[in-house]
Structure formats: C-alpha cells, structure tokens
Amino acid sequence: MANFSSGLRARFRSLGRLSPDEQGATATEYGILTGFIATAIVTGVGAFGTALNLYFGQLSTGVRNALGIP
Q1: Helix locations, 1-70, DSSP H
Q2: Which residues contact 33 (CB under 8 A, 6 or more apart)?
Q3: How far apart are CA 59 and CA 21, in angstroms?
Q4: Pairwise CA distance, residues 48 & 50, whole Å
Q5: What gap in Å lies between CA 17 and CA 48, rounded to an integer?
Q6: How far apart (Å, rounded) are the C-alpha atoms in residues 59 and 70?
Q7: Distance CA 18, CA 60 (A)
Q8: What is the pLDDT of residues 8-51, one digit of tens each?
Q9: In Å, what is the CA distance from 26 to each residue of 31, 32, 39?
C-alpha cells in the first residue's frame, strides 16, 4: 500500500511540472470549435426540417383521404 501511495505522490508532483505558460485555447481553436458547432446546428436543423416536411405531407394526405378530396 505504501508503494501505491508514494507512486501517487510522484505522479502529482510531475503534474506540477507542466508548462506554466499555457494560456488556454487560442483564437484559432475557438474558431475551429465554433465551426464544428455551426456545422452540427445546420445539419440538425436541415434534418429536422426534412422530417417535419415529410410529417406534414403525410398528415395532409391523410386528411384529404379522410375527407374524400382527390
């Protein structure tokens, strides 16, 4: 158990030695992330619009058939 504990302490110490000059995401990374999000939104809205159009098409056909309208 002591070996495990000392191994953990060594790992945490090595984490402290990571580069302190990391400033986080740059504008380029934010731009790429925004592009991925925009692509996902456009794809989702397009798929939803297609499904909604199909649903209302079937609904109007059912109503016309029920009312006997050709």
Answers
A1: 2-16, 27-67
A2: 25
A3: 60
A4: 5
A5: 48
A6: 14
A7: 63
A8: 676 666 665 655 556 667 888 999 999 999 999 999 999 999 99
A9: 9, 10, 20
Q: Which token pair is 57?
A: 């098409």
Token pair recorded at residue 32: 């790429």
Q: How far apart are CA 31 and CA 52, in angstroms?
A: 31
Closest CA to 45 of 55, 53, 33: 53
- What is the largest distance, in Å, between two alpha-carbon atoms of the chain? 84
Tokens of 69: 């309208």
Query: CA gyration radius for the chain?
Result: 28
Provide the whole-model pTM: 0.54
